[in-house]
Write a structure and sequence with these properties.
By secondary structure, the chain is mainly beta. Helix content is 13%, strand content 36%. Strands 2-3-4-5 form a four-stranded antiparallel sheet, with no helix packed on it. It has a four-stranded antiparallel sheet with strand order 6-7-8-9, with no helix packed on it. It starts with 11 loop residues before the first helix and ends with a strand.
């Protein structure tokens, strides 16, 4: 079977015909030359020309068989869905420096954790995250975010229904736990901010820094420099920033050590997406969404951000439509800027955005118990058709492997 052809490359049989004609011309020239010396002198240039022509034609034919870049039919090969045993609600997935995949799950018995050391071929037995001391009658915890830090330590953010049970407001806070490398159980659950709050996210780096982000009318962060053993008192990066309080935050450490926080503004009801950069000098921010959205009320949306070789990749919804963008290390939009995907997204449903080393980017969205996705090439052009899979809960989880392939956990 002849491989599919890229527009603009010559058909294979044309290239073969060119090579044959060049060879035949060489034979004719040699046959009718007047003398051996004359033939040798004149045919040296001819041989060079024929060789160049043959090589060019052969290269063209090879290009038609093996075109450079990511082809449309490669999309299926690069994206694979893996179902976690027991069909739990998968909240978040992240891959560690040792290529172990870590997953945060929500089950009927509360948040759990599993890992895979063989690219999703098998999973460890689940580990419950909430210890007995944190349990109270009627109190239910749910997983919000997961981050993998130094030496593979796993950090988890959780919320609960304390507000619904009308417990003291100090219990409506940001709950945190971690799993040390090789440990068999998570640390005791801690309420680290003791403040009514939501929109929880975590980021961890390779040297032991962990940052917890949350919303409580304003944007707040808490920083740990000892793998989450202790956190600073919560503080606002900038009191003039006015976040959309019922949305969320998404956070990631950049290659330069700064923390990138994605959030939605609500000033004058202009619901724009901003990227804040914190940690080295004055906190700065830049607007990353370009499609306007004026709304008198919080849309209750979720976002995603991850580090890339060039900076970051981020995804967010505007008016129910999912967009993504590639950003440099200062949060500026990289060409072609904001990109509209075929995805739609409901309230408090997860998104994902991941980039491989070759620039291929997977964008995913959750809507009505279906996880959809689209793969893009390094020029932000879609590769193949969108994919989808049934998926319960509000999470959107995937990782990118060392070979550039993507694993989705619906």
């Amino acid at each position: 079977m002849i491989p599919s052809q890229v527009a603009g490359s010559p058909p294979f049989f044309v290239c073969v015909w060119v090579i044959f004609c060049a060879w035949q011309q060489g034979r004719t020239s040699r046959r009718f030359s007047g003398s051996i010396v004359k033939w040798q002198n004149s045919n040296m240039n001819l041989e060079k020309q024929l060789t160049l022509l043959a090589r060019t034609a052969l290269l063209a034919s090879l290009c038609s068989v093996c075109p450079v870049g990511i082809r449309a039919d490669d999309a299926t090969d690069r994206v694979k869905t893996i179902h976690v045993p027991g069909n739990p609600r998968v909240v978040k997935a992240q891959i560690g420096a040792d290529r172990t995949i870590h997953l945060l799950l929500d089950t009927e018995n509360g948040p759990c954790y599993v890992k895979s050391s063989d690219a999703g071929a098998s999973f460890s037995p689940p580990i419950a995250i909430v210890d007995a001391a944190a349990q109270k009658s009627g109190l239910k915890f749910q997983g919000e975010d997961l981050a993998v830090g130094k030496k593979g330590r796993v950090h988890v953010a959780m919320a609960n229904n304390a507000w619904k049970l009308k417990l003291p407001e100090a219990e409506w806070g940001f709950y945190y736990s971690s799993l040390a490398p090789e440990a068999k159980s998570f640390s005791a659950v801690r309420n680290i901010n003791r403040k009514p709050s939501e929109g929880f996210s975590l980021a961890a780096d390779e040297v032991g820094n962990v940052t917890a982000c949350f919303l409580s009318d304003k944007l707040f962060t808490m920083v740990s420099h000892d793998d989450g053993e202790t956190f600073t008192q919560y503080a606002e990066p900038n009191a003039d920033w006015n976040p959309c309080n019922c949305c969320t935050t998404a956070a990631a450490f950049g290659a330069d050590g700064r923390l990138a926080v994605l959030y939605r503004e609500e000033t004058d009801n202009e619901r724009d997406i901003y990227l804040a950069l914190l940690g080295k000098g004055k906190a700065v921010r830049s607007r990353v969404s370009t499609t306007p959205w004026k709304l008198n009320g919080c849309p209750m949306t979720y976002f995603a951000i991850n580090r890339t070789a060039r900076g970051y990749v981020a995804a967010w919804p505007t008016k129910g439509q999912v967009y993504f963008a590639r950003l440099d290390t200062w949060g500026a939009l990289l060409p072609p800027g904001e990109i509209k995907t075929p995805g739609t997204n409901g309230m408090r449903n997860g998104l994902l955005a991941l980039s491989a080393r070759d620039g291929a980017t997977l964008v995913g969205w959750k809507d009505k118990d279906v996880l959809g996705w689209q793969l893009y090439d390094g020029e932000a052009q879609p590769i193949g058709k969108p994919g989808s899979a049934p998926s319960s809960g509000g999470g959107a989880a995937a990782v990118v492997l060392e070979n550039g392939n993507f694993l989705i956990f619906p």
